């Protein structure tokens, strides 16, 4: 579980880094000017690599992809320098928050600008650690800093924490096993398992989700959606005169 939390808060044209250890009060680094770290072409190339390349990784495209892959660490280092080398205080915060290991630290990005939240924060790359941070962190999330609460919360049960777990199952029995996907969540809840009521929605359809909430109003504290996806491998038809494969 995370013992430390680093929060990158963006507002207007500035960013500020906060560090919190456990239940202690957050500590704040100085506010610094935020400068967009990437050119438009870099974001265009990254979007192509992540969203389009895998659907057709043939012809000249592997060469283009290789060129982009060579830039990932550079882009990640630029983003890291912008945030965690912006002042001596932020450098110290990062070192202290990750001293026990990246897996004991979570990273939260908040902003009043969706475009900033849409930056590839997963590319954050630490040269000293020689690795991208995202795969090793205890968690990583984004949120709008001024997101309004759209509904009043009713009084919920206080004897247990009630969680509804929705796991994507588009291929039924061919999908990954429930316990395999849910293992990280169950591990995090292990210390308080007796105080948690966890239900897996079956089948995980929108209709069943609606029925479950209507049948158990003012019951669930958390709905945890665990989604996973796949991409279809294109089918190509090669014509040889009157024959085809």
Structural overview:
By secondary structure, the chain is an alpha/beta fold. It folds into 2 domains: 4-144, Nucleotidyltransferase, domain 5 (2-Layer Sandwich); 151-245, no CATH class. 29% of the residues lie in helices and 24% in strands. It has helices spanning 40-51, 61-84, 88-97, 114-117, 178-188, 206-215; strands at 4-11, 14-21, 27-28, 32-33, 105-111, 125-126, 131-132, 139-144, 161-167, 196-200, 222-226, 239-240, 243-244. Strands 1, 2, 3, 4, 5 and 8 form a 6-stranded mixed β-sheet that branches. Strands 10-9-11 form a 3-stranded parallel β-sheet, with helices on one face.
Portion of residues in helices? Answer: 25-40%
Question: Helix/strand-derived class?
Answer: alpha/beta
CATH fold topology of the largest domain: Nucleotidyltransferase, domain 5
What is the CATH top level name of the largest domain? Alpha Beta
Number of helices, counting only DSSP H or I runs of 4 residues or more? 6
What are the salient characteristics of this protein?
Nucleotidyltransferase, domain 5, 2 domains, 13 strands
List the helices and strands and how they pair.
Blueprint: E1 4-11, E2 14-21, E3 27-28, E4 32-33, H1 40-51, H2 61-84, H3 88-97, E5 105-111, H4 114-117, E6 125-126, E7 131-132, E8 139-144, E9 161-167, H5 178-188, E10 196-200, H6 206-215, E11 222-226, E12 239-240, E13 243-244
Parallel strand pairs: 1-5, 5-8, 9-10, 9-11
Antiparallel strand pairs: 1-2, 2-3, 2-4, 6-7, 12-13
């Amino acid at each position: 579980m995370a013992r430390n939390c680093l929060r990158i808060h963006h507002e207007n044209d500035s960013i500020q880094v906060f560090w919190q250890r456990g239940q202690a009060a957050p500590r704040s680094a100085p506010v610094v000017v935020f400068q967009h770290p990437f050119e438009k072409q870099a974001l265009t190339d990254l979007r192509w690599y992540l969203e389009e390349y895998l659907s057709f990784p043939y012809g000249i495209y592997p060469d283009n992809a290789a060129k982009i892959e060579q830039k990932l660490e550079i882009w990640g280092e630029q983003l890291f320098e912008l945030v965690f080398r912006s002042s001596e205080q932020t450098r110290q915060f990062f070192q202290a928050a990750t001293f026990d290991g990246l897996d004991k630290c979570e990273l939260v990005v908040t902003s009043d600008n969706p475009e900033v939240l849409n930056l590839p924060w997963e590319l954050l790359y630490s040269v000293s650690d020689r690795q991208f941070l995202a795969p090793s962190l205890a968690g990583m999330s984004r949120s709008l800093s001024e997101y309004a609460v759209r509904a009043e919360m009713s009084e919920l049960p206080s004897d247990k924490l009630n969680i509804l777990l929705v796991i994507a199952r588009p291929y039924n029995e061919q999908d990954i096993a429930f316990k395999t996907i849910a293992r990280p969540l169950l591990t995090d809840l292990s210390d308080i398992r007796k105080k948690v009521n966890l239900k897996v929605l079956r089948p995980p359809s929108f209709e069943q989700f609606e029925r479950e909430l209507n049948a158990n109003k003012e019951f669930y504290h958390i709905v945890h959606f665990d989604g996973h996806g796949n991409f279809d491998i294109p089918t190509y038809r090669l014509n040889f005169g009157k024959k085809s494969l």
